């Protein structure tokens, strides 16, 4: 697919332009995909509520824009790299510096508009599902190989779309039809087993320790599953929800956030969701008025980003633990519209925030409170 990318070369300066070499002299590890993100300055103090120090940067994918919607934006778990996936059948990697954001590599999967893409837990692969296909693809970045997974014994689904990767890298979880959830081995890509909900399953995520699965349904119920036995540990009605639309779990295991079709986002204490039959939200966030389609916690659990892809500018950043919305985001002014948000993510230490929209843009913001990437 165009030769060995510069970040995979044994010679870190092979194939770099003069401008890239200058950048490389400043940080020899930036072009290595697996280099760890480092502490740039002193450790940040706790984030204050009210006004967020935020700066709009050059779009992360400015070197490889698309005319079709982006379906996914995600930061690499360890490096200063961002991945985008699009309905134009492409997956692209960018080195994020907030200034130039040079493209590292793009791949194209023929006749495969991408519904979702996600890094593997070790950051060496990208898993991708299509809009209307029953197969999924694995892109091995270390060898530059695209692997189609075409036959999964025992799995009878017409489409494979929404999925999640367990944080420990052991499992893939696919949302099926008729309330089914299918768990696969990430290594062998074989079906381990399936779980059944009483209504159409809409979203499912792993717990931070990979021991549990949280899923929500079209009737507003939330299910808690044990990964080892695939048994339902708990089931409760999301407070006031008639249709569950999105889920997010904080990386520190403190909160579970449940979004609904009405736009209400309820935030619960994690342990209450596991143990109580009728947990009450710590906070109900009502700043969205259309379907809450995506959510993501910042890695340090100081911000919860919520969004609806139904309308423009429907993105809110919520301060934790006050659960108040930052009043200065998004900026309401001409030329700064956030078109319909399809996907969102924070960089590994919360220094950057990105939004993928329906215009093919990966909007990039620098959160100036944080000194780390």
UniProtKB/TrEMBL annotation:
The keyword Oxidoreductase does not apply. WD repeats lie at residues 206-235. Residues 19-31 have a biased composition (Acidic residues). Residues 1-34 are annotated as: Disordered. Transmembrane segments: none annotated. It comes from the Eukaryota. InterPro entries: Utp18, WD40/YVTN_repeat-like_dom_sf, WD40_repeat_CS, WD40_repeat_dom_sf, WD40_rpt. Keywords: Nucleus, Phosphoprotein, Repeat, rRNA processing, WD repeat. It is found in: Nucleus, Nucleolus. One of its GO terms (biological process) is rRNA processing. Its main location: nucleus. One of its GO terms (cellular component) is small-subunit processome. It holds the Pfam family WD40. Belongs to the WD repeat UTP18 family. Part of the small subunit (SSU) processome, first precursor of the small eukaryotic ribosomal subunit. During the assembly of the SSU processome in the nucleolus, many ribosome biogenesis factors, an RNA chaperone and ribosomal proteins associate with the nascent pre-rRNA and work in concert to generate RNA folding, modifications, rearrangements and cleavage as well as targeted degradation of pre-ribosomal RNA by the RNA exosome. Involved in nucleolar processing of pre-18S ribosomal RNA. This is U3 small nucleolar RNA-associated protein 18 homolog. It comes from Eleutherodactylus coqui.
